[in-house]
Structure to design on (303 residues):
C-alpha cells in the first residue's frame, strides 16, 4: 500500500513582500496523524511553528476550525503568526469559509477570530487582524537580574519602565531596551535564559526598543529562543502592546507598528492596538499581511 501523501503549504506571515516575515508550514488535513507524527513533521519543516488543520466532515458557515500548533520541540496552546497564517490559508481555500470577512480558529487556548480586509486589485496576499484575549499582567522582575540573564549591561535596559511578564494566551517577559544600539547587540544565552524563564512564569523574553523614526515603525522588537531568532512573534506582540498601553508608553487605541526580524534578514511588520478602560487593558488587536509562497506534499511512512 503506498504511503499517504499529506498536502501542505508555506506562507509568509507579517510580510510586506514575499520571502520576508515569518514562514509558516500548514498541513491542511491532519485527521489521520498522531501527536508523535505531528511533532515529527514540525521538526522536519524546521520552522518556528507548523500548524495542523482538522477539517470538519460537514463544514458549516461560521464554524470554528480546529487547529493545533507545534514548534520543533513542543505543542503550543496559542501563537500569533500561526493563527494569522492558518486563517489566511483558510480564507483562500476553505470550502465554506473562503473569502469570509472573519474566520475563527479553535486553538488549544480557545477560540481566536481573524478578520480580513478585502484585498485591493494587485495587492499581494491578504491582510488580517486577530483580537487576542485580554491580557493578564503577572509579576515584575529585577532589572539587574534580567540584565545578567540576557548578558547585557544593566544600563542597556530602560530604567523608566518595569520588566514584566504579560500573557494574552502565552506568557512573555517584556524587556524594554534603552536604544537601538543596545537591542542590536542582543545574544541571549539560551540555557540560562530557559532556566530563569521556567522559574519565573514566562515562556520567552520579548525585547523592544524605540525604532528609527525613518523606518516607519514605532518599536524595534526581537525574540530569541531555542529555535534561534523569531522573525515575527504575533503572540508576544499582543502582550507588548498591552504592556505599552498599561504603562502609558503608548496611548490607548493608538495604532502602533512593530518591526522585527531585521537582524536575520526576514523583515516583518506587525500592526497592533489596545484600549485602556477603567484601568483595564482590552481590545488587543494584532494584524499583518500573509503571502502564499509554496505548496506540496509530504509522504509519511507507516514506520
Amino acid at each position: 500500500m503506498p504511503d499517504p501523501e499529506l498536502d501542505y503549504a508555506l506562507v509568509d506571515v507579517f510580510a510586506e513582500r514575499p520571502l520576508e516575515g515569518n514562514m509558516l508550514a500548514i498541513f491542511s488535513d491532519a485527521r489521520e496523524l498522531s501527536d508523535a507524527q505531528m511533532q515529527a513533521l514540525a521538526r522536519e519543516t524546521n520552522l518556528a511553528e507548523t500548524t495542523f488543520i482538522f477539517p470538519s466532515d460537514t463544514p458549516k458557515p461560521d464554524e470554528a476550525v480546529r487547529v493545533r500548533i507545534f514548534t520543533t520541540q513542543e505543542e503550543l496552546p496559542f501563537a500569533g503568526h500561526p493563527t494569522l497564517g492558518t486563517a489566511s490559508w483558510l480564507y483562500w481555500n476553505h470550502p465554506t469559509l473562503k473569502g469570509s470577512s472573519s474566520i475563527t480558529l479553535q486553538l488549544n487556548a480557545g477560540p481566536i477570530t481573524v478578520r480580513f480586509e478585502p484585498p485591493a486589485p494587485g495587492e499581494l496576499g491578504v491582510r488580517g487582524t486577530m483580537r487576542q484575549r485580554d491580557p493578564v499582567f503577572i509579576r515584575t522582575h529585577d532589572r539587574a537580574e534580567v540584565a545578567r540573564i540576557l548578558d547585557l549591561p544593566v544600563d542597556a535596559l530602560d530604567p523608566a519602565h518595569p520588566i514584566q511578564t504579560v500573557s494574552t494566551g502565552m506568557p512573555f517577559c517584556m524587556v524594554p531596551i534603552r536604544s537601538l544600539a543596545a537591542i542590536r547587540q542582543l545574544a541571549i544565552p539560551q540555557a540560562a535564559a530557559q532556566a530563569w524563564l521556567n522559574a519565573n512564569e514566562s515562556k520567552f523574553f520579548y525585547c523592544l526598543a524605540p525604532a528609527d523614526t525613518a523606518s516607519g515603525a514605532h518599536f524595534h522588537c526581537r525574540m530569541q529562543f531555542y529555535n534561534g531568532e523569531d522573525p515575527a512573534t504575533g503572540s508576544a506582540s499582543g502582550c507588548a502592546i498591552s504592556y505599552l498601553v498599561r504603562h502609558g508608553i503608548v496611548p490607548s487605541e493608538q495604532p502602533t507598528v512593530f518591526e522585527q526580524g531585521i537582524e536575520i534578514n526576514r523583515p516583518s511588520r506587525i500592526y497592533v492596538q489596545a484600549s485602556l478602560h477603567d484601568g483595564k487593558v482590552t481590545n488587543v488587536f494584532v494584524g499583518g499581511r500573509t503571502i502564499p509562497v509554496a505548496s506540496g506534499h509530504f509522504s509519511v511512512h507507516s514506520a
